[in-house]
Design brief:
Blueprint (H helix, E strand, L loop, with lengths): L6 H13 L8 H6 L3 H9 L3 E6 L2 E6 L1 H36 L1
Antiparallel strand pairs: 1-2
């Protein structure tokens, strides 16, 4: 088994888990994205994941630090949008001054 997590899949999984937070529990999906038990336990230890042991296996939900991570992703996305809008306004301003 590989020791790497596909970043985009990991991010998509956590964002999907956030949409149903705190009621939705995930099982196999988490194990598919985060392949090793050691990695899942490390995420639990750091507060990104909550692992609930059941008779049929494990269920996973977001931990408190995962909400901070998702907030940072949202801030990153907002910053990117602001940067694009700023560049658009600067470009429009330059074009306006060139026409004068």
């Amino acid at each position: 088994m590989t020791e790497e997590i596909e970043v985009e899949n990991f991010k998509a999984l956590f964002l999907d888990m956030y949409r149903g937070f705190p009621r939705w529990l995930y099982g196999k999906q988490v194990e598919d994205i985060i392949p090793t038990k050691r990695m899942r336990e490390e995420l639990e230890r750091r507060g990104f994941l909550v692992i609930e042991r059941e008779q049929r296996g494990f269920k996973y939900s977001l931990g408190p630090n995962a909400l901070l991570l998702i907030s940072a992703w949202g801030t990153e996305k907002l910053t990117l949008h602001i940067m694009v809008l700023t560049l658009f306004v600067v470009g429009l301003t330059i074009l306006t001054f060139l026409k004068l």
